[in-house]
Amino acid sequence: MAFLFICFASGSQAQDTLTIEDALAIALMQNYDLQLAANKLRMADHNRSLLNSNYLPVVSASAGTKYGDANSKMTLQNDMENEVKGAQSLGYNAAVAVNYLWFNGFARKALYKKQKAAYQMADLQLKDEINTTLMDVYQAYYQVANLSLQGEILQDAFEISKQRLRKLQYEYEYARTSKLEVLNARVDANNDSLNMVNVMTAYENAKHNLNYLLGESIGKKFEVDSEVEVDKMLDINEIRDKMLSNNYRLQQLGISKKMSELDLKISKSAWIPSVSSSASYSLNNTLYDELNAYKEQDYNGLNVGLNVNWNIFDGGTARIRMQNAKINMENQEIYRKQLLSGLETQLQNIWNNYRNQLAVIVSDRQNLAVNEENFMKTKEKYEAGLINSIFFRQAQLNWVNAKVKLLKAKFDAKISELQLRQLQGDLLGE
C-alpha cells in the first residue's frame, strides 16, 4: 500500500499543473450545466423576437385540383326522364389569404413584454448558474489541493514510522528491545500506510469531481497549485450592500413580480373585445366534357372581412385566472421577504465561520509550532533511549494532526471567503 502511494506521488510530479484561473476558464466554456443554461437563454432570445409576438399578419396560400365523374338521372312532372352517365369535370383552384389581429384587449402587448422579461430572467438564471458553478469549481479545486498537501504530510509521517520500525528491528536482532516494541512500531507504520491510501483514494475521487465540473474526461490527469491565500480584509457591511444590489436571485424575483403583473393584464384582456380582419383572393376554374351544359366555368374574386369578438361569459375561467394572478403577485412579495431573510442568515453564518477560521488559523499556527518543537525534543529523547515508543508515537500524532488541522483551517477560511463573494455576486472578480 505504501508503494502504491509513493508511485502515485511520484507520477503526479510529471503531470501538468492546472491553476485555479485555468479551471475557471475551462468551466465557463465546457461545464454541462452552463451549456444548458446558455441554450435556455438562446431559446428565450428567439421567443422575444417580433416573429413570435403576434404583431405580424398571417399570410396563407392554398391550391388544389379536383376531378369529377358523375351519373345523374332526373324525372320531370310528366314522367319524362333525363339521364346522363359519365359526366366528367376537372377543376383547379388557388387562393391567397391575409389575417391580422388589430386589437385583443392589450393581451398581445402584455405577452410581448412578458417574453422580453422572460429573456431577462433567463439571462439572470445563466449568471446565477455561472456563480454557482464557479463556487463548485473553487470548492472542488481546493479539495484536491487540500488532499494533495495532506498526502505529503501523511507520507512524511509514514517515513518517520518506517525509520522507527527499522531501528527497532535492528535493536531486536541484538536483543536491545522487546518483540512488543517491534510489533507496536509495525502497527503504527501500517496505520500510517492505510491513512495514505485513504487520502490517495479521496484525492483521486476529488480530481474526478473536478474533471466533471470542467466538462473534461473523468480520468484526465493533472496537478493543482496548492498555494492558498485568504483575504483577511473583507467588510460585512460592504458585502451586505453588494449582496442587496447584485444578488442574482433577488433580481430574478424583481423580474418574476413584473411577469406576474403582466399575467394579470393578460387575464383582464379576456373581458375586452378583440378586433381582427381578413382578406382573401381566390381563383377557380372548372372544365366540363361534352355531356355537360357548360364547357368551362371561371370564378375569381376578392373577399374582405372585419371581425369583432367579445367573449361575454366564458364560464368564469378568466375570473379565476385573474384571482390566481393576484395571488401570485402577493407570493412574489412573500418570496422576496423570505429570500432577504435567508440571505441575511447566510451572510451572518458564513461571516461567523470566516472570522472564526481566521482566528483558528492563528491559534493552529501557534499550536503547530509547539507540537513541532515537542516532537523534535521527544524524538531526541527517544533516540537517546530516555523515553519509550508510546510517548514518541503520541508526539508524532500530535504533530501530524496539528499540521492537518492548520491545513484544514486555511482551506475552510478560503471557502468561507469565496462563499461571501458568491453572496455578493462577484466570484468572477476574484
- Overall average residue pLDDT: 89
Total separate domains: 1
* DSSP summary: helix tally: 9
Would you give the CATH topology? Outer membrane efflux proteins (OEP)
Shape category: elongated
Category by helix and strand content = alpha+beta
Tell me the major beta sheet.
4 strands, antiparallel
Fourth-level CATH superfamily: Outer membrane efflux proteins (OEP)
Q: Any idea what the CATH architecture is?
A: Up-down Bundle
CATH class: Mainly Alpha
Q: Write the H/E string, N to C.
A: HEHHEEHHEHHEEHH
Helix content: 55-70%
Question: What is the terminal separation in angstroms?
Answer: 40 Å
**Which radius of gyration do the C-alpha atoms yield?**
40 Å
Q: Spans with pLDDT under 50 lasting ≥5 residues? A: 1-12
Structural overview:
- The longest helix has 67 residues, at 107-173.
- The radius of gyration is 40 Å and the shape is elongated.
- α1 (2-12) packs across α4, α1 crosses α5 (179-214) and α2 (20-30) crosses α4 (107-173).
- It is an alpha+beta fold and 430 residues long.
- A 4-stranded antiparallel beta sheet has the order 2-3-5-6, with no helix packed on it. It has a two-stranded parallel ribbon with strand order 1-4.
- It has 9 helices and 6 strands; from the N terminus they run αβααββααβααββαα.
- The two termini are 40 Å apart.
- It has a single domain (2-57, 103-273, 314-429), classed as Outer membrane efflux proteins (OEP) (Up-down Bundle), CATH 1.20.1600.10.
